[in-house]
Design a protein that fits this description.
Mean pLDDT: 78
Oligomer: single chain
Number of helices: 12
Strand content: 15-25%
Largest sheet: 9 strands, antiparallel
Length: 607
């Protein structure tokens, strides 16, 4: 009866404590999983937004750079003063040369660049294929423009058609003249490709500060749309770019920049009007845009990305602020990332990525709950059944784990001190035997080459004062070992190598290490040795020890001798491979020419 009471006295409170511990751990794990997933979702949004920003910057930079090839940057306006004039080729032939250069430097198919003079003359080049262009020319006055097909600069042009086209009536021309600086046109549908485009126009001034005309570069929105549609996201997620007023620029779904309007134009064709996010067919796009707009209105100081259309070396652009967060909506929680783009030519875009939290979390939550329930059950059973034996067993397993890490990192291996008769004891004995074979040379019981290199690298990485870390390596090669093998046989040669290993260990300090490099070559590691004098003294001691006769099995004595080359860290190299190469070269120099252990090898043609 007393035994039963004692069991209840200890087991029931302990079981209740373990249950509370299991629930607490499960709750903490769940919260940690939620926090980790939140961080992961924000990183995914930020990475996705970073790619979109790069695509926008690349397109805008290409447009601005092509424009600057034809009309280089002017000195910025100061107050009400007009821009400082720049040299500009009024000769039509030289103007065409610059435009061909711009088309060659930025070979986007469909890219258009043109110049419209105030006197009416016009030069426009559009790339229609890899090696095919459409060139439109118009003389001064009010005559028609002529369209030609060309294979490239200086190639023969084939006449295609003539039409009435006055560039001075175009929106981009009028806007650039009105603002007297670089200006973006509104988005419009390009006639030949039926793709949404916009023009970056720059007025050009002559030496008398009169306007000579306007240079314009077309920017197609097709590459941005294709980039967004290639993004990997859930079917309910969306990424889009819009003007600050809500006009759609590009999107990852089927929303078009232009939609059919109610009016019918000339020829019975339906007029197209700009699609805005307030009229978007996707309610999710509408809701996410409203959230972004509300945020921008509440935080008018949001720093935009200054896009590189007009680079400034005087005032370099500041990095834009990434708007990222979760917002409630009628579609549930929405994960949103947005960034504002702005440039000096009047462009103001907002890039947005929006993902429904339900899509992002649905499968994760289900998996988390299943894992949580199963984990709580396993934890509870494991703690109830195996707490005592696990505490006893894990102590030695921890030692084995640390020993494995030691081998992987190159840390010197400490004795395990595991004295058990069960499987863990057998594992410890097997591990020690395995470690001995991995780290040591089987014949001489010295460290092997890889083990010594790993230990040196570990000490170099973990030294408390890396700037003061110094050591020397000696490369030892036996001089007459081949004759021993040839005369006495390989068995006697092995005994000589064993004796050499013992002599090397006895000749070194306690902190020094020696390893068999291979064959009759050995490496000696001298930690803390920072100068040639100290290393040379140890090398001379080794030389003297190895020059002493060795007693063979048959009673003969043989004298081996050795050639030794050395290198210092960091004077002779910053990595062990370089140091060993230096020491090896010096050893061969000593073997061939004599001299000092640390002397530089003589020239190859030295006799």
């Amino acid at each position: 009866m007393k035994r039963t009471s004692l069991q209840r006295l200890f087991i029931l409170p302990f079981a209740a404590l373990l249950l509370c511990l299991a629930v607490s751990v499960g709750w903490l794990l769940y919260q940690a999983g939620q926090d980790a997933t939140d961080a992961l979702s924000q990183k995914v949004l930020a990475d996705m937004m970073g790619g979109i920003n790069s695509a926008i910057n690349r397109q805008l930079f290409d447009a601005g750079a092509a424009l600057r090839v034809v009309a280089p940057d002017q000195v910025a306006d100061t107050g009400d003063k007009p821009p400082t004039p720049i040299p500009f080729p009024v000769n039509v032939r030289r103007l065409e040369e610059r435009m061909w250069i711009a088309s060659g430097l930025f070979p986007a198919v469909g890219g258009f660049i043109g110049f419209a003079g105030t006197d009416g003359h016009f030069v426009g080049i559009r790339r229609t294929a890899a090696n095919e262009f459409r060139v439109r020319l118009r003389g001064a006055g009010d005559g028609p423009s002529h369209l030609y097909r060309s294979r490239g600069p200086a190639a023969e042009m084939t006449f295609l058609e003539s039409e009435e086209y006055d560039p001075r009536a175009q929106n981009w021309y009028l806007n650039a003249l009105s603002r007297k600086k670089d200006t973006w046109s509104p988005v419009f549908l390009e006639g030949s490709s039926n793709e949404p485009v916009l023009m970056l126009a720059r007025p050009v001034f002559g030496a008398d500060k009169d306007v000579l005309g306007v240079v314009a570069r077309e920017l197609s929105l097709k590459p941005l749309r294709e980039y967004l549609q290639a993004l990997s996201m859930d079917r309910n997620g969306v990424a889009y770019i819009a003007e600050r007023n809500g006009g759609l620029v590009a999107s990852s779904n089927s929303e078009n920049v232009f939609i059919q309007g109610p009016d019918v134009g000339p020829g019975g064709k339906t007029e197209h009007v700009r699609n805005t996010l307030s009229n978007a067919a996707s309610p999710f796009m509408q809701q996410s845009w409203q959230l972004v707009q509300a945020y921008l209105q509440k935080h008018p100081d949001v720093v935009p990305i200054t896009d590189p259309v007009i680079p400034s070396t005087i005032n370099p652009p500041k990095p834009g602020k990434l708007i990222i967060g979760a917002f409630p909506s009628s579609h549930g929680q929405i994960e949103v990332a947005a960034q504002l783009h702005r440039d000096a030519a009047g462009l103001e875009w907002v890039a947005v990525v929006a993902l429904p939290r339900s899509d992002f979390w649905g499968a994760i939550n289900s998996s988390v709950y299943k894992s949580l329930y199963l984990g709580l059950l396993v934890i509870l059973l494991a703690l109830l059944v195996g707490y005592a034996i696990l505490r006893w067993a894990l102590r030695d397993i921890r030692k084995l784990t640390l020993a494995v890490r030691s081998i992987g990192s190159g840390r010197p291996f400490a004795k395990l001190n595991i004295d058990r008769k069960d499987e863990i004891g057998e594992l410890a004995e097997s591990f020690q035997e395995m470690e001995r074979h991995l780290r040591t040379d089987r014949l001489t019981s010295l460290l092997n080459r890889d083990s010594l290199i790993a230990q040196i690298e570990f000490r170099r990485r973990t030294d408390v004062e890396p700037q003061l870390f110094r050591f020397a390596v000696l490369f030892v090669d036996l001089d007459k070992f081949k004759q021993v093998n040839d005369h006495y046989g390989h068995d006697e040669g092995d005994q000589v190598l064993i004796e050499v290993g013992l002599r090397l260990q006895n000749a070194l300090r306690k902190e020094d290490e020696v390893a068999r490099f291979g064959g009759d070559e050995f490496i000696v590691y001298l930690p803390g040795v920072a100068d040639e004098e100290s290393a040379l003294a140890i090398a001379e001691k080794i030389y003297a020890v190895l020059n002493k006769p060795i007693l063979m099995t048959n009673g003969d004595h043989c004298q081996i001798g050795a050639s030794i080359g050395g290198a210092l860290y960091p004077a002779d190299g910053l990595d062990l491979e370089t140091l060993l190469k230096v020491a090896d070269k010096r050893m061969y120099s000593v073997k061939k020419f004599g001299g000092m252990t640390f002397s530089s090898p003589p020239p190859e043609d030295a006799s």
